[in-house]
Amino acid sequence: MKAQGNSKKRTAIGMLALTTLFFILVVIVQSRAVCRYTVRQAREPVLKQDLQEMRRAIDEYTLKNERPPQSLNDLVDGNFLRAIPADPITLKADWVAKFDDVKLAAKRRVNGIVDVRSNSGGSNAHGEPYNSW
Length: 133
Known about the structure:
The protein has 133 residues and is of the alpha+beta class.
């Protein structure tokens, strides 16, 4: 009888240990997911700020030089930006420059950079693609 009681005790302890291990694994997996989400959320305001700064620099360059920049490096060379920032989402300076005609004078149009976007294929928590900001 004693052996059977001991066996039940071991089984109960084993089940308790297995349940505890499972709970710990669930907590670890969830904390990693939350951490990734938090890091992504922390990068979003930086992306917005970098886009605003580069768009401002594009506008200032166009007004001062009476033509839009032909590359993002023109903004650095003209001292409108210190450096081209790394996209906080892709962690690379791989921005997508949008080219279009800019009307400068009555009948004068010049093609150049009019906007800049992230090269990321990701989305924010609301499903908005970063490359549409």
